[in-house]
């Protein structure tokens, strides 16, 4: 049916990152397809062996966490290198690759990923890829660590449905224009904030940082 290459752009190269969680959940949805799927997690370093595989793929799916309303710097470096490779190999003359993206963020609202997805869309237009759409997932720090809660559960079902739409778009070889999909967990926002604050305090204590130290502003100039 087609070759799919999934890029995990998380700076956390171990497989316990949130991006890998969404990849694993998506792969479960693809188990009943005939797609040839390959995936890799990139880190700072040599990428040249990956670029040819991408150019041979029918579909590329980029996944990454949001970093300062943008894409992690090492993933941007990877994309710059890919653009250079395409130009040098003149592969842009017959590119038919479709691109999707799955970004998650620590903010509660999934639409906070919109700028990063716009960057990915503009990149595709520049190098000749066909941009399909992206999924922006909010509360990534809840979604990933709560693996014991099924993605089809009520609290996470919007993200499950978004991944299902991605699967349908790939399997049906859709060409109609689709907008990005943004999801947030079905819970009161204040509960997410409360859990986040507890998590920050716990993490600070484990690193010998006091609660007062969390609010420290060492680089603020005193008037």
UniProtKB/TrEMBL annotation:
Protein name per Swiss-Prot or TrEMBL: Multimeric flavodoxin WrbA
Organism the protein comes from: Clostridium pasteurianum DSM 525 = ATCC 6013
InterPro entries in alphabetical order: Flavoprotein-like_sf, ISF_SsuE-like
UniProt keyword terms in alphabetical order: Flavoprotein, FMN
């Amino acid at each position: 049916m087609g070759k799919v290459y999934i890029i995990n752009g998380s700076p956390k190269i171990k497989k316990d990152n949130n991006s890998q969680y969404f990849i694993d959940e998506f792969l479960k949805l693809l188990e009943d397809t005939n797609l040839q799927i390959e995936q890799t997690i990139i880190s700072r370093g040599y990428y040249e062996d990956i670029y040819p595989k991408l150019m041979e793929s029918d579909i590329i799916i980029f996944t990454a966490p949001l970093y300062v309303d943008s894409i992690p710097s090492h993933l941007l470096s990877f994309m710059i290198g890919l653009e250079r490779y395409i130009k040098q190999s003149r592969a842009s003359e017959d590119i038919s690759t479709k691109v999707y993206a799955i970004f998650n963020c620590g903010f509660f609202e999934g639409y906070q990923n919109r700028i990063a997805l716009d960057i990915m869309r503009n990149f595709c237009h520049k190098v000749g890829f066909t941009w399909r759409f992206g999924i922006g997932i909010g509360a990534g720090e809840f979604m990933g660590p709560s693996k014991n809660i099924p993605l089809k559960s009520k609290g996470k079902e919007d993200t499950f449905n978004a991944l299902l739409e991605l699967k349908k778009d790939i399997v049906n070889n859709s060409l109609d224009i689709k907008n990005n999909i943004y999801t947030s967990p079905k819970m009161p926002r204040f509960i997410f904030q409360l859990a986040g604050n507890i998590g920050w305090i716990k993490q600070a204590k484990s690193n010998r940082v006091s609660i007062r130290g969390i609010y420290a502003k060492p680089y603020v100039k005193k008037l």
